[in-house]
Amino acid sequence: MAEVKLLGVRGSPFVTRVVIALKLKGIEYEFLEENLGNKSELLLKYNPIHKTVPVLVHNEKPILESLIIVEYIDEVFNGNSILPKEPYQRALARFWSKFIDDKIVSSVKKAVFTLDEVEREKGIEESLEALQFLEDDLKTKFFGGDEIGFLDIAALIIAYWVPIFQEVTGLQIFTSEKFPKLYNWSQELINHPIIKETLPPREPLLAFFKARIEGLSASK
Ligand SMILES: N[C@@H](CCC(=O)N[C@@H](CS)C(=O)NCC(=O)O)C(=O)O
Ligand SMILES: *[C@@H]1O[C@H](CO)[C@@H](O)[C@H](O)[C@H]1NC(C)=O
Ligand SMILES: *[C@@H]1O[C@H](CO)[C@@H](O)[C@H](O)[C@H]1NC(C)=O
User: Fold this and answer.
1) What atom of ligand 1 comes closest to residue 69's alpha carbon?
2) CB of 171 within 8 A of CB of 111?
3) What is the signed CA dihedral for 65, 67, 68, 72, rounded to 10 degrees?
């Protein structure tokens, strides 16, 4: 029988993508909890380049980078498709998921985790601009249509983690006024049964990011 292991931490949006994909396919796996302050030999062996989680290990072979892992899971295991079937739609889903990691994640990070006023303002502006593109692209209940798909899994970071960052910092980037369609989508998504049971609890995440942001100003 195929052996699946996942190296991860529970609060990570990137690890959560992989957990959701495994659940959607109904795959049994072993979760190996990492301590990112003291990374395991296994993590360093399997991901010596980035040393990040998630790492999926399938029959002793490591697969790296959350979006690539989700595609791998979709290709290797039977069950409902995660990516769209049609090549053009697949290309679009990949394009937008890359846009989320390249543009949205980086600009939100800049808005949330920088102390420099000018940099932070730039981060906010870039976040708003990037989110507007996604808002304009959303035409259905989920990005995947009536059901959740690849892009919904990629974008979960916006639906669940960004509001947590906002609560910690008081920033108002992703709001129902500014992005009504995306906001509705985010509520549908976080209340979807599989997503809901997978999301890490909110309170510890709030505390974790609060400490991290306070740590920033303390170490200034
Ligand atoms: N692009 C990576 C990002 C993964 C990532 O940033 N993981 C974080 C946890 S949320 C990590 O492992 N950080 C440890 C480190 O950077 O030392 C992916 O999609 O898998
Ligand atoms: C890091 O983890 C290893 C293996 O679990 C342990 O032996 C070691 O004491 C840890 N180091 C620190 C600094 O906590
Ligand atoms: C968002 O959802 C609310 C409540 O379901 C609905 O009244 C509203 O029209 C929706 N807005 C958009 C932009 O879809």
Assistant:
1) 20
2) yes
3) 130
Secondary structure tally for the chain: helices H, strands E? 11, 4
Domains and CATH numbers, the chain: 4-76 (3.40.30.10), 87-218 (1.20.1050.10)
State if residue 65 touches ligand 1 by the CB under 6 angstroms criterion: yes
Choose one of 14, 68, 108, 112 to mutate for the ligand 1 pocket test, by most ligand atoms within 8 angstroms of C-beta.
Answer: 14
d(CA 163, CA 173): 9
Q: Confidence class of residue 220 from pLDDT cuts 50, 70 and 90?
A: low
- Ligand 1 atom nearest the C-alpha of 54 is 20
Q: Above 90 in pLDDT, residue 2?
A: no
Residues facing 6 on adjacent strands: 31, 56
**CA of 178, nearest ligand number:** 3
Which ligand places an atom closest to the C-alpha of 49? Answer: 1
Ligand minimally distant from the alpha carbon of residue 43 = 1
pLDDT of residue 186: 98
Report yes or no: 154 and 101 within 8 Å, Cβ to Cβ.
yes
- pLDDT category at 218 given cuts 50, 70, 90 is confident
